């Protein structure tokens, strides 16, 4: 009998990073592989499912506007019970550090399935940053049976926490698998959003691409971020700031209120993955608090200012592509303006780096599980 895989995810970044794994498992006929989405995100998840042509076998459809962590955590666990009991997977795959990840790993543990953690071992060692993701990832790491660490650093973190070396595999990050598949497709496909960007944006100006959504930046952090972007747009007239705004109301409100009518700043809806990758390729500078973007930008040779005080992805900081600027407006403005005007420094920061993988992470994960199943 074929071994049964259940791949569970719920948010945009998990979907992007799990899509190539779904494909890789479906290519083999060794497993019966099914996909379950919690739909912790809805529109932003569906954009990814559409692009990668994934039709989930189970869709819990859980997103509520302005949802909170208590309700979401509880409802994911209870809603997974009937699926786990009916399908009885041998292996459950979770990704990274979201509420879906942690809750699904607990539910899978109750079911008796073996838990496979993709993107395991990243740590800041500060439980409040990123919040609640540092704890989500750590809890998942201690519930999981098999750990797919993207880098040597994440492998070492797990080993130092007492995880058995034999159960950890360094695979690279599946985000690079997704990126390498999407860069050529983004250029080739007739993409409505790419057409829209070509019409709406002023490519005679230098593009700064911005994203932001972290909970620890909600409130004053976002006000600071918006004030910094405003100052950059005023002082650098040959720059256009493009910001696809996350759908979280705690992000939408300050961003549209402070930047909605600012010249040289274009606020747009979240972009589907190929259009976002296309735009990142065209950008001169990326300013973000996103985890995934920190991994993609070095592979595209784009300097990144990260609006966080800590990062669980130190590799690109060490490689010199990423600078942590926190949410201090003066620091953000100073670093952005210096980079835009100091070509030597810009050149140094925009060298291509690939600390996060070679595009073969999913192949390695499939082989690892095949070997276990022999
Ligand atoms: C979640 C993850 C975070 C991840 C981020 C990626 C947790 C605790 N946080 O944060 O780790 O980096 O996703 O984006 O798991 N919303 C929509 N439509 C969507 C998506 C979100 O309307 O497609 C709105 C809803 O009002 C929702 C709110 O955003 O309630 C917050 O979503 P939630 O998943 O709870 O938190 P994120 O901040 O998106
Ligand atoms: N992304 C996207 N459209 C956008 C903004 C980001 O497809 O408008 C992609 C981006 O390329 C990256 C991922 O979404 O792969 C990052 O998601 P997010 O910042 O929401 O979450 P994080 O990575 O911080 O968990």
TrEMBL record:
CDD domains: GTB_UDP-GlcNAc_2-Epimerase
Molecular functions (GO terms): UDP-N-acetylglucosamine 2-epimerase activity
Superkingdom of the organism of origin: Bacteria
Cleaved signal peptide residues: none
Domain UDP-N-acetylglucosamine 2-epimerase: 23-369
Record keyword Isomerase present: yes
Family: Belongs to the UDP-N-acetylglucosamine 2-epimerase family.
Name of this protein: UDP-N-acetylglucosamine 2-epimerase (non-hydrolyzing)
Natural source organism: Flagellimonas flava
Taxonomy of the source species: Bacteria, Pseudomonadati, Bacteroidota, Flavobacteriia, Flavobacteriales
């Amino acid at each position: 009998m074929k071994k049964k895989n259940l791949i569970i995810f719920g948010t945009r970044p998990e979907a992007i990073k799990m899509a190539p794994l779904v494909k890789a498992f479906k290519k083999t006929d060794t497993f019966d592989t099914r996909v379950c989405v919690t739909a912790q995100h809805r529109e932003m998840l569906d954009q990814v499912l559409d692009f990668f042509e994934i039709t989930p076998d189970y869709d819990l459809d859980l997103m509520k506007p302005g949802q909170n962590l208590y309700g979401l955590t509880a409802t994911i666990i209870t809603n997974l019970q009937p699926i786990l009991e009916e399908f009885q997977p041998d292996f459950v795959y979770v990704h990274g550090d979201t509420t879906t990840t942690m809750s699904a790993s607990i539910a899978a543990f109750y079911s008796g399935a073996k838990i496979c953690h993709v993107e395991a071992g990243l740590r800041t060692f500060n439980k409040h940053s990123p919040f609640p993701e540092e704890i989500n990832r750590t809890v998942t790491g201690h519930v999981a049976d098999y750990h797919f660490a993207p880098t040597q650093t994440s492998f070492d973190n797990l080993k130092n926490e007492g995880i058995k070396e034999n159960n950890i595999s360094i695979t690279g990050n599946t985000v690079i698998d997704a990126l390498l598949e999407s860069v050529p497709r983004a250029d080739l496909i007739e993409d409505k959003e790419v057409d829209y960007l070509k019409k709406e944006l002023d490519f005679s100006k230098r593009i700064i691409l911005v994203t932001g959504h972290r909970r620890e930046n909600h409130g004053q952090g976002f006000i600071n971020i918006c004030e910094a972007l405003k100052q950059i747009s005023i002082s650098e007239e040959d720059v256009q700031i493009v910001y696809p705004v996350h759908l979280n109301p705690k992000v939408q409100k300050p961003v549209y209120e402070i930047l909605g009518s600012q010249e040289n700043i274009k606020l747009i809806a979240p972009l589907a993955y190929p259009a976002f990758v296309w735009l990142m390729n065209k950008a001169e500078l990326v300013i973000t608090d996103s985890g995934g973007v920190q991994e993609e930008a070095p592979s595209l040779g784009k300097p990144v200012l990260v609006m966080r005080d800590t990062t669980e992805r130190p590799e690109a900081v060490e490689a010199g592509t990423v600078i942590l600027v926190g949410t201090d407006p003066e620091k953000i403005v100073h670093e952005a303006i210096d980079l835009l005007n100091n070509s030597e420094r810009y050149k140094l920061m925009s060298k291509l780096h690939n600390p996060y993988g070679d595009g073969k992470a999913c192949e390695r994960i499939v082989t690892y599980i095949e070997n276990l199943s022999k």
